[in-house]
Specification:
Blueprint: E1 4-9, H1 10-13, H2 21-29, H3 34-42, H4 45-60, E2 65-68, E3 71-75, H5 84-88, H6 91-96, H7 100-106
């Protein structure tokens, strides 16, 4: 059985100004026209963006660390499957390598 532990929150690793992935996405689009923002929300585009963004973050994480809600969980150092790659992994850097704007553009209601 795997033993897991908390590796921190979205606020710790992803965006210190927001508690959730979704709040970070809303902040990212806040500079846009208010009508466009409303269309993005009412069309379901924000949900699609959040889903794709979470998937991209998950793909950027090594086996043994995952994003669950707004928490990063992973194998505890006492777990037999734990590796140095997990322990040394920089979650913040991995998130920064994910291009949120490309995901936003993919789901932009004006495209």
């Amino acid at each position: 059985m795997n033993v897991t532990t908390n590796y921190g929150t979205w606020n710790n690793h992803g965006d210190s100004g927001n508690l959730t992935v979704e709040a970070s996405i809303v902040d990212a689009i806040n500079g846009g026209d208010s009508d466009w923002q409303e269309r993005m929300e009412s069309s379901g585009a924000l949900d699609l963006i959040a889903s794709d963004y979470r998937d991209a973050i998950e793909d950027a994480l090594p086996a043994g660390i995952s994003i669950a809600g707004n928490e990063f969980i992973g194998l505890h150092h006492t777990d037999p499957d734990y590796t140095d790659e997990i322990g040394d992994f920089d979650i913040r850097e991995a998130i920064q390598d994910v291009d949120l704007w490309t995901i936003i553009q993919k789901h932009d209601v004006d495209n």
